[in-house]
Amino acid sequence: MSDSPTAVVHARGLRKDYGSGDGLVRALDAIDLDVSRGEAVAVMGPSGCGKSTLLHLIGGLDRPSAGQLSVAGQRVEELSERALAYLRRDEIGFVFQTFQLMDELTAQENVELPALVAGYPPNEARARATALLEQVGLADRARHLPSMLSGGQRQRVAIARALVNDPGIVLADEPTGNLDSASAFEVLSLLSKLHAKGLTLVIVTHDERIATAADRLISMRDGAFIDETRLTGGSRGTLSTFAEWQS
Amino acid sequence: MQQEVVLAMLAKEPSHGYELRTRLARALGPVAGDMSEAQMYVSLTRLEKGGFVARVDAPAQRSDRKVYALTPAGQERVTEWMSDVSWPRPDLAEFHMKLIAAAQAGLADPVSLIDAQRRDLLRRLREVGLAVMEEEKDSDAALLLEGIVLRLQADLRWLHACESAWTKRGTRK
After folding, report:
1. Residues of A numbered 226-245 whose beta carbons fall under 8 angstroms of chain B's beta carbons: which are they?
2. Can you identify the CATH homologous superfamily of domain A38-61+80-231?
3. What is this structure's pTM?
């Protein structure tokens, strides 16, 4: 199969083992995955099925045991630790279940931080953070500490932070897992809006409602893909069947 | 939905078909589908024949439209309908029997039937989920769509249980 020029993620025969000998655990096996630019892919499956491991490999937080993996055009298995760190910083935005914001920094400072680390001058980092907080609907909360924000607002700050260095892809691991349904809906609406504007996304989730907002849904079990459902196209017009008229 | 819905909407005040259609569309949002004003008049004509509604004189300015009002029989029907607690049931038994028949007669693999059904429900969930996001928050239609989302999620959960059970049965043989 040829490497599509629009593929942000391109994986073939990806495998990840932990431990060795009798304690060997094959967390991922024979994974083939392509994610196109602008595409949103959801990954679902029971705990321990390998979906978070997959996200960690794509995000360069961990390295594959075998197989090939390209992210944003770079072959991950050939990168030095340093090059991998640059890839993470410049091309990957992470969104975690537990937000992972710095408690002692304001919303604005949390969003600015990765831009400063990436070498943007402070005024540029500030401008980027301000624009992103505006985009996630939290312009009026910029000076708040995370502890003063609701769960949904904290996750929106985390999403703004994930976007601050214009990553090629955003990886979200259970982004609504710690939220009540109203906050989950806020986060879902925001991710949908960003995706509609062209953001490339891989979302690991337990929630079908979140998953079905993606273009494609992959089901995993025991470290392998067991099913793939294309959600876009050919499915309009079922809404009115919920109010069928009996005459 | 039953004809009683049309009757109940007339309980507010005498109306013509166009206005009823507009109110229905607002309450149902994208779920309203393409029910036309013409279909509304078909319903009203049928209800008129049944003696549940009657034509009343139109206000002078819109004399071209037929205005309907509830009759006492219609009023009574609405009252009964309001207190009726019957609830539409999704036909789970039919799908359940499809799986059993498929397995017993070797017509199909139950697990692949479940997978196909699951894909269909996931696509529906997507459509409803996206529709909710397009609605004004707290609108009547958003509340209805939310109910449809929860219902689909419950059905998906049951399919998940079916899948686990039939996968186990498949490997037992």
Report:
1. 227, 229, 231, 234-236, 238-245
2. P-loop containing nucleotide triphosphate hydrolases (3.40.50.300)
3. 0.87
